[in-house]
Specification:
It contains 6 helices and 10 strands. The protein has about 290 residues and is an alpha/beta fold. The strands form 2 sheets. The protein has an 8-stranded mixed sheet with strand order 1-2-4-3-5-6-9-10. It has one domain: Alpha/Beta hydrolase fold, catalytic domain (Rossmann fold). Helix 3 packs antiparallel against helix 4.
Length: about 290
């Protein structure tokens, strides 16, 4: 039976994040702890089954809600000023340090889903990360999208988000089946970052003053699927090129090879796709 401890993580600016800590349930193996950083608008509960499974296979695990999302939203959403830059500069560093304190380890493995794996380059605690495994991690550049998403993304970014910012005060992603509604600044930065190659690199010199991409030397592995309309091969390559001094690699998954009709951007962490978890776990080794 899986067990976890609810935590409150205090960021350097005083913001409190809701988190779950899953202790290592397999005491004979002392592997590096794993920090699961969620995708945009996705809460920590989405990763519960996978986190519990990892804890039963020798990893201490921490998963959290980014500020403005899930249990880390502490006011009416339209009043929330959280941004993606805040997630990378404040939330992830605080989560890294919390996991290190709980596990008594010296470094963590950062397992990022989508946006959760795209922000190491602005994380001032990057040296405490031994490896990054980016599941469906890419820059999400609109010109690299495919399928239905290639058609819908410009509408969401250029029409829905700007109008909703004025009328609702937030990004209404829940109504279109894309997770929790987003703080207005998260929605705005998501649109801005995906409009050009490089994602968060587009904020350097603007809302980001310290860029660590070229200083990062830990291995970075991106796991992507051939039916993902967001993390396409081109967009995954676009992410990895941002780390010139890191050893980077890509693992391509084809759904039919694993008896799935689809995997896409979200399904790798679902219990229905548990036969993919060993592939992820194999990369959580340094």
């Amino acid at each position: 039976m899986s067990t976890f401890e609810n935590l409150n993580i205090i960021c350097s600016d005083g913001y409190s994040l809701a988190a779950r800590y899953y202790p290592n349930q397999y005491n004979h193996t002392q592997r590096l702890p794993v920090l699961i950083c969620p995708a945009t608008g996705i809460t920590k509960s989405f990763y519960h089954a996978f986190a519990a499974w990892l804890s039963e296979h020798g990893h201490a695990v921490l998963c959290f809600d980014f500020r403005g999302i899930g249990d880390s939203l502490h006011q009416p959403l339209k009043q929330c000023e959280a941004s993606i830059v805040d997630w990378g500069q404040l939330d992830i560093p605080a989560a890294v340090n919390s996991l290190l304190q709980k596990s008594q380890a010296e470094q963590v493995i950062l397992l990022g889903h989508s946006a959760g794996g795209q922000l190491l380059g602005i994380n001032p605690e990057y040296h405490k990360v031994a490896k990054v495994v980016a599941v469906s991690g890419s820059t999400g550049h609109v010109k690299g999208l495919k399928g239905r998403t290639r058609l819908l993304a410009p509408v969401m970014f250029n029409l829905i988000f700007p109008i909703a910012r004025l009328t609702h005060g937030y990004g209404p992603t829940n109504a279109i089946g894309m997770g929790e509604n987003l703080p207005k600044n998260v929605a705005q930065q998501w649109a801005q970052f995906c409009s050009k190659p490089g994602y968060v690199i587009n904020a350097v010199g603007k809302t980001v003053q310290r860029d660590f991409h070229s200083e990062i030397q830990c291995p970075i592995t991106a796991i992507w699927t051939t039916d993902d309309e967001i993390a396409t091969e081109a967009n995954v390559q676009d992410l990895l090129r941002l780390y010139p001094n890191a050893a980077t690699s890509m693992i391509e998954l084809e759904p039919h090879r694993f008896s799935h009709k689809s995997i896409g951007h979200m399904a790798m962490f679902k219990k229905s796709h548990q036969n993919l978890w060993e592939i992820i776990a194999d990369q959580l080794v340094v």
